[in-house]
Structure formats: C-alpha cells, structure tokens
Amino acid sequence: MMHNLNRKLESPNPNTAAYEIKSFFKGQPLAYCVGFYIFAFYLELHFRIPELQTIRFQFTFGAFVGLWCLVKFFGDSNKQKQFHSVTKVTFLLIFILGIYTIFSMDKPESLRVYNDRVIKFALISFFIYAATEKIEDLRVIVAFILLAWLKIGQEGFLGWLTGSLMWENQGIQRLHGSTAMYGHPNSFSGFAVGCLPFAVFILMCVKSNLLKLGLITLILFSLIIIVTTGSRTGYVAVALGTCYFLMKLKTGKFKIFLLGITILLITFNFVPTEYKERFGSIFTGEEKEGGSSEKRKEIIADAIQLYIEHPMGVGVQAFSKVRYEMFGRSQNTHNLYLEVLTNIGPIGFFVFFYFVLKLIQLNSMNIRNVSKLGETSLNNQFLINLSKAVIGYILMRLLLGLFGMDLYEVYWWVALGIALAVSKLIHIETQRVINSNEHK
C-alpha cells in the first residue's frame, strides 16, 4: 500500500533535474494565479506600476482569485477533515483579533490593520490551500514566492553595490529595502533572515543546476542584506538559527561546520569595521549614536506599566496611541511578545502562541507522514524539506520577535498555507490508495 502511495505521489520520471524544471509548467491555472498574486504582493506591483494602482489591481485580482478559490474549495470532493485542531485555533485567533478590534482603544487604526493585515493575509493561506491539488501546483506557488524574494534580494544587492539604498542610520551606513514593506533596515534584515531556511532546505533536495544557482544566489543576497542593514537582531537570529540547523543535521555536521568556519574566516576581513562594531555592541551596549538600546529598555518599561494599567489588552495595534496618552511617547513595542500581550491580552497571548505551536506540530506531522510513504524520491524529499523550511522559518520569526513586531505580518499565514497544502497532498494520495484498494 505504501509503495503504491509513494508511486502515486510522483509524476513520470520524478527523480530527474528535467522533471523539476518541467513541473513548473504542469500546474493548474489557479496555482499560477495564486502564485502571481503572492509575487505581486511581495513586490508591491500596484505601487511600482501606476496603471495597476489606478485599477486597484491588488483588490481586483485578489477578489478574482478569492472567488475562484471559493468555487474550487466548495466543489472539491477531497476536502479533508483531520486538521480541525489547526483550523479551529486559526479561526479562534482571527475571532479574538476581531473582538480586540471592536473594543480597541484606537478603533480606526485597529479596523485598518484587521482588514488589511489580518483578513487579507489570512486569505493567502486559504489561496495556497485551495489552489493545491497536486505537487506541481505547490511547486509553482513556492517558485513564485522564491522568485519574488530573489527579486527583492537582487534589488537590495544592487542598492548596496551602487550605494543607492545605503544611507546613515544610527551612526553607520545601513542598507534599506526597495519596497515600502521592507524599507526600514530592520524589516529588510528580517525579510532576508526568513529567506534563508527556505533557500537552504530546498537547496538540499534539488537536482537542477539552474535551481541550485538561483537558491545559492538567494542565500548570498540574503547574507549581504543581513550584514549591511546593520540589524543586530538579524545577526543574532542567523547565529542562533545556524546552531539549531547544525544540531538538527543527522549527517555531515562536521563538514558543514568546517565549511562555515572557513567561509566566516575568509569573509570576515571583507566586512567593514562599522558592521563589526555594530555586532560587538550586542555585548557591550555601546553605540555610535541613536541610543536604540536605551530606547528599547524604555519601551519595555513603558509596555510593562501599560500592561499593568490595562491587563486585558488595549486592542489591535493600539499600543502606540495608548503609550502616547500615558507617557507622551508613541513608538511601538519592538517586541513580538510584548506586542501580543499588550494588544490582545493574556487570552490572545495564549491563543496566538498555541496557534504557532499547532503550526509547528502540523509541519512535524507532515514530515513523519511523508517519511512513511516508502522509498526516497525527489517529490517526497521536496515535501519533507519544505516542511522543515517552514519550521525553520517560524523559529526564525520567533527569534526576530525578541526585537521586532510580527503579530500583524504575513509570515504566519504563508507558513500556514504551505503546511496545509502539504497535508492536503498527503491526504489526497492516501484517499486514492484506500479507494483503489477497496475497488480491487
């Protein structure tokens, strides 16, 4: 049974580099539309191309894709029932965020964020799930995501090389992103950190030299961005993430460790002194200017006092307004954990991190289930490594959350959509095998 299941999950000649390239042309039309929607979202095409902004492209195309996904979902005879624990906590989180929008202490801002950064981002999960019917669909969607990241990385690389996106911030030259979403150096660094788990894990399972080249290029762009943005959060996340990656490797740890040390020693002399000093300030607390460390301590103290005054939370994205009213300072939390606690209270805090836990567990279950399918194949390994990449991606976001605000970002929803899509593929093939055996 498992041998047949393994064969059905694959397409003809699924273990060749040629198959990897051809698979990008074998997806369903909806998969290409969803992939392009996500591509356009990351690149903010509606801002880059005035004509698209005129016709409200993001809304119009999103509505079209959403309607198509709804028709596909309700007409799908393979809808699975076993992921209620994941979907229930997801809907519960959306519901709680809605309640904290209605009763927010900054209702206009809460309504804007809930509509633009909760509902719309959650729909991306649904789009990915609904559009995936076969592994080629998921390959197409992931390819669009990686292509968007590669383009943003390329723009960052050129911005660093030419100096067009480099200007002084906190006493050093820092790289800024080419889009509004990643304009701030810290946001741009966080974006690059998130690229690494996908690029590294997928690189480990592809055979096509063209795909390998693209993924290696994405890794190089990401590392350059992380270094030149001067974000200490990015430095810490990469260091801790690398340690975690090495611990999880079953084989080749020593070789990769030696390779990493060699690369580090070779490149260290090429890193400008200002970035070395920036990294060192993590431990010394000494900065050239800006006093960001002191400001963060001030924010933490204000956040704790604000929470004592409002223990049930102040509402979706309402922290800045309430802080200004209390202390005359409006800067946001710069900490995911304080953001969740002060915005949606202890109940929301529990639900959000339970959602994150269930998401990690779903990916772990996907890895176990694919591993049971039999012999190792290109498709099976892709699903396993993709699930590992999602886990790494989530863990990186949690590390970055120590110094950043990610509650209302798209990261969680992209991760959820991919995880559910992998689960759906496994479920569909399992049902096919069961039905086939019943008819024998």
Summarize it.
The chain has 440 residues and is mainly α. The chain is built from 19 helices and two strands.
Structural key phrases:
globular; disordered N terminus; two-stranded antiparallel ribbon; 2 strands; mainly alpha; 19 helices; 440 residues; single chain
What's the N-to-C terminus distance? 12 Å
What is the overall number of helices?
A: 19
Please, what is the average pLDDT? Answer: 86
The quaternary organization reads as single chain
The coarse overall form would be: globular
Sequence stretches where pLDDT stays below 50 over 5 or more residues: 1-11
Number of beta-strand segments: 2
Instruction: Provide the gyration radius in Å.
Output: 22 Å
Going across the biggest sheet, name each strand in turn.
1-2
Content of β-strand? under 5%
Which structural class should the secondary elements be placed in? mainly alpha
Order of helices and strands: HHHHHHHHHEEHHHHHHHHHH
Largest sheet: 2 strands, antiparallel
Helix content: over 70%
How is this structure best described in words?
Helix content is 74%, strand content 2%. It has 19 helices and two strands. It has a two-stranded antiparallel sheet. Helix 12 packs across helix 18 and helix 17 (336-371) packs antiparallel against helix 18 (378-400). The radius of gyration is 22 Å and the shape is globular. It starts with a helix and ends with a helix. Mean pLDDT is 86; it is low at 1-11.
What order do the helices and strands come in, and which of them pair?
Blueprint lengths: L1 H7 L8 H7 L5 H15 L1 H4 L1 H5 L2 H18 L9 H19 L4 H25 L3 H28 L3 E4 L2 E4 L9 H19 L5 H20 L3 H17 L4 H16 L4 H12 L7 H18 L9 H9 L8 H36 L6 H23 L10 H28 L2
Antiparallel strand pairs: 1-2
Helix pairs in contact: 3-6, 3-8, 3-9, 6-8, 7-8, 7-17, 8-19, 9-11, 10-11, 10-12, 10-18, 12-18, 15-17, 17-18, 17-19, 18-19
